[in-house]
Amino acid sequence: MGSQLRYCGNTPHGWDDLVLQGQPDEAKFAAFYGKGETVVAVASMQMDPVMSKSAELMRRSKMPTLDELRKGKSVLDVGLPSEVKI
Fold first, then answer.
1. How far apart are CA 61 and CA 63, in angstroms?
2. Taking Cα atoms as reference points, which of 68, 66, 71, 63 lies closest to residue 36?
3. 3-state DSSP call for residue 79?
4. Nearest residue to 16 via CA among 49, 38, 1, 47
5. What is the pTM of this model?
6. Residues 18-43: pLDDT tens digits?
7. At a CB cut-off of 8 Å and minimum separation 6, what does 28 contact?
């Protein structure tokens, strides 16, 4: 009780791949939905910093590719301009 699923992005043209980071068995994960190598949506539970950063990176077209995420890249390690505060 008390857990919330968070979501950003959209998939009007569907998605064809998924990269899952975290521990889904413990309801602590981020799911990156992609079309080709482009992340089109993110769903998460108990990973609010990842969700906040993903939303900002998607808005700025700076999101890592699915392949980069699959290889272990964290969205938390992607830089933003210093004037952006999350």
1. 6
2. 66
3. coil
4. 38
5. 0.90
6. 999 999 999 999 999 999 999 999 99
7. 22, 45, 46, 47
